[in-house]
Write a structure and sequence with these properties.
The complex is a heterodimer of chains A (383) and B (345). By secondary structure, chain A is mainly alpha-helical. Chain A is built from 18 helices and 1 strand. In chain B, helix 3 crosses helix 5 and helix 6 packs parallel to helix 8. Chain B is elongated, with a radius of gyration of 25 Å. Chain B has 13 helices and 7 strands. Chain B has 2 domains: 50 residues; 279 residues, no CATH class. The chains are: A mainly alpha (383), B mainly alpha (345). Strand 1 of chain A pairs antiparallel with strand 7 of chain B.
């Protein structure tokens, strides 16, 4: 008769032994241990466990800094990255994105050479890593990286194509907001032709359609949408049906960079209006959308630049002279925005001095100011 | 009661005779003593000898008695020394020569599972008990109990009585051969499962740590075709697949398409640990079925920690992390449904 005891921490002891042995193989350049180390990695990286994911991420850096033959090193790195980033419930923070981007670039390169079977899963794993497990250190590290490198741009474009796995396309949707500051400026002109932009926007739109629009997804796709809309060189490539994504503006944070820049962009309102005019009688959706944009601008009227304010006033007068019922549409949008912010403010104490509470109060004040100005503009015209 | 009454009467009679004739009284006392010894003996080992219907009493008495009888066997103490050096996988060294590396060891390797040392000699007693019970032509209930007990024993090289033939016979009788391949007789499903499990357990452990040569099932290889159940019974199908592999007629298996009961999966992972050990002694790679099982167990949601532990042991063996033999041999009773709880086995 003997007493036994089992506790999950004993599995932790085994994990530690295995991973320290694996790290020592790569640290000590133990070539004779390589084959069985890779066999063991192939098995253990399938385990869904917090400790294993974290240990695999550490091992990933160790493998990439090892002096094994390049092909052997990449093969082991692929297993380690899969072990680290395969599981949705736990993803280690990408604190040092240099290795991640180096890994991604290498696999984009072999993908273009026709080794798609090998590259697909590692690309998915690393897109997931940067898209879902980014923190301040990740974003700072990515600043140094050239996002307009032709190989990199081609690889990201490929990740949106219709034949890619669902998880790859989903990760790519979340990855683009990380790099879009540089992508949707002027710096991408050499790396992507107009035809390629058309194709990218089409595939991006198809990826958007292929995923459930949860709160997180809405935030990610809306961010990219406004980044494209803000760019003169990109907005004309957006697929027709995708302008509707403007409806998700309420899911963005108030300080969302590209959304704020869109509101301050004096070229946008006339562009949307002309687009609606071009569509003519068939352009019901286009018309609705530019009026929605007008309403969004009214809800933030107090913080708009003077030039845009004048545009808003002028356009509003033109609208109500033709269709009086549009007044109630704009008014309803602005009021809804006010209520949304008031509800958020309700979550704070009445006299709270928290930064967030102060910001919300200022926002509600700004909306009130916009409402007053709107009523004034509409009322004068009515008289 | 009658025996007790007779004993009391004997004592009263002896007392009376003592006053009359001491020699006659001495004879009467001796008779009473013999009666007393017979009474005690019949109460103690009666269930063992007669095959008492009360299974719990029988089991409780039979096992310690048999263990006491065989505990002095001389070959038990040196079990580790004799078994361990026999099987050591080779690993190439930087110079390209080959050097033996012990991945299973009893010395200088810390234990992972907290417990008292394994009672290796107890397994010998258990094996004798099992052999003795098989010899008694047990009925179906008894046979089921024996087969279950068989899988609780670690069949190491110190054990001489290995009931492989009995277990195989029990297993094979659950199938009919009229349709070419042996096909399960549906009403004998439970017996086939238990016997198959015991057969796999014995076959793999004897191949791995036994002394029956490298092919303990060799003498039984008279079957034709592959065993099949024509059912969607993951527990039984997995066993039939392993039996076929052991008999040299492997069939591909997709573990992801089988569902297992928790006790079965725990047993399976543990026996695969032995299978992995056996294979890694001679080759650098795991058998395909073990590799596929480990990947399946790691990938599945909610796999029992005991199964994870066995699979981690398998990974450790693959990579050459030395393990303590007690950690390898500990049976799956180490695991309980509540983490950290203690239980006697």
């Amino acid at each position: 008769m003997f007493l036994t005891v089992f506790d999950s921490s004993e599995n932790g002891v085994l994990d530690v032994r295995i991973f320290s042995k694996l790290e020592s193989t790569f640290n000590n350049h133990a070539i004779w241990e390589y084959a069985r180390s890779v066999d063991a990695m192939r098995l253990i990286t399938a385990l869904r466990n917090d400790t294993v994911a974290q240990s695999c991420y550490s091992l990933f850096h160790v493998v990439l800094s090892s002096s094994f033959e390049k092909e052997d090193m990449w093969a082991a790195a692929r297993l380690a990255s899969h072990g680290a980033f395969k599981w949705d419930r736990y993803l280690p923070w990408v604190n040092d994105p240099d290795d991640a981007m180096k890994f991604l670039l290498y696999h984009f390169a072999i993908q273009t050479k026709g080794e798609d079977d090998i590259a697909t899963q590692p690309i998915e794993d690393m897109l997931r890593a940067v898209a879902y497990a980014k923190n301040k250190a990740t974003l700072e590290g990515l600043e140094k990286f050239d996002h307009t490198d032709k190989l990199f741009v081609g690889g990201v474009r490929k990740a949106f194509e219709g034949d890619r796995p669902f998880q790859t396309r989903k990760a790519a949707l979340f990855f683009v907001p990380v790099i879009q500051d540089k992508w949707f400026g002027d710096s991408l002109e050499e790396a992507m032709s107009d035809e390629e932009k058309d194709e990218f926007c089409k595939n991006w739109g198809s990826a958007v359609d292929g995923i459930e629009h949860t709160m997180d997804v809405k935030g990610a796709i809306c961010t990219t949408f406004f980044a494209m809309l803000n760019s003169k060189k990109w907005r004309s490539h957006i697929v027709k049906g995708k302008f509707k994504l403007m409806e998700y503006f309420a899911d963005l944070p108030d300080d969302s960079k590209h959304f704020t820049e869109c509101k301050k962009n004096a070229s946008l309102l006339p562009w949307l209006r002309s687009r609606a005019a071009e569509a003519g009688d068939r352009g019901t959706e286009e018309t609705k959308l530019w009026k929605l944009w007008l309403a969004i601008l009214w809800s933030d009227y107090s913080s708009l630049p003077k030039g845009v304010r004048n545009q808003v006033l002028e356009v509003t007068k033109g609208v109500i002279s033709k269709a009086r019922h549009d007044v109630s549409f704009i008014s309803r949008i602005v009021t809804t925005e006010k209520e949304r912010h008031q509800t958020k403010l309700g979550g704070h104490a009445a006299l709270s001095l928290d930064d967030e509470a102060e910001r919300l109060r200022a926002r509600v004040e700004g909306i009130n100011e916009g409402i007053e100005k709107f009523e004034e503009a509409v009322g004068k015209k009515a008289k | 009661m009658l025996q007790a009454a007779l004993l009391v009467v004997s004592c009263v009679l002896a007392n009376h005779l003592w006053t009359q004739d001491q020699w006659t009284a001495s004879l009467a006392v001796a008779g009473a003593e013999i009666l007393c010894i017979v009474l005690i003996t019949s109460v103690t080992i009666g269930p063992v000898l007669i095959g008492c219907s009360d299974g719990a009493v029988a089991k409780g008495i039979r096992k310690p008695l048999l263990r006491a009888l065989v505990s002095t066997k001389p070959n038990v103490k040196n079990f580790r020394q004799r078994v361990l050096p026999k099987r050591c996988p080779r690993a190439s060294t930087p110079e390209g020569s080959h050097e033996k590396v012990e991945i299973i060891s009893a010395d200088d390797v810390p234990l992972i599972f907290e417990r008292q040392p394994i009672d290796w000699s107890g397994f010998i007693s258990d094996s004798l008990c099992i052999a003795w019970m098989f010899d008694r032509s047990p009925d179906s209930d008894e046979a089921a109990a024996i087969l279950d007990f068989t899988t609780e024993v670690v069949w190491h090289s110190g054990i001489c009585e290995v009931p492989l033939a009995n277990v195989f016979e029990t297993f094979d009788k659950c199938f009919r051969y009229s349709e070419g391949n042996p096909t399960l007789i549906p009403r004998l499903r439970d017996r086939a499962y238990k016997a198959g499990r015991a057969l796999v357990h014995l076959g793999i452990q004897r191949k791995c740590i036994g002394e029956g040569g490298d092919d303990p099932l060799g003498g039984l290889r008279c079957i034709r075709g592959s065993y099949s159940s024509h059912s969607y019974d993951g527990d039984l199908d997995s066993i039939l697949n392993i039996v076929d592999r052991l008999f040299g007629t492997p069939r591909p298996i997709d573990w992801t398409k089988l569902t297992f009961s928790e006790p079965h999966q725990r047993w399976l992972s543990h026996i695969f640990l032995y299978r992995a050990w056996d294979h890694l002694c001679y080759a650098s790679k795991l058998p395909d079925d073990v590799e596929a099982f480990v990947t399946y167990a790691f990938s599945a949601e909610g796999t029992h920690p005991a199964v994870i532990a066995d699979c981690l042991f398998i990974v450790s063996l693959v990579i050459g992390v030395p393990l303590h033999v007690d950690d390898l041999a500990v049976d799956d009773k180490r695991y309980f449904s509540h983490k950290g709880s203690r239980q006697c086995s």
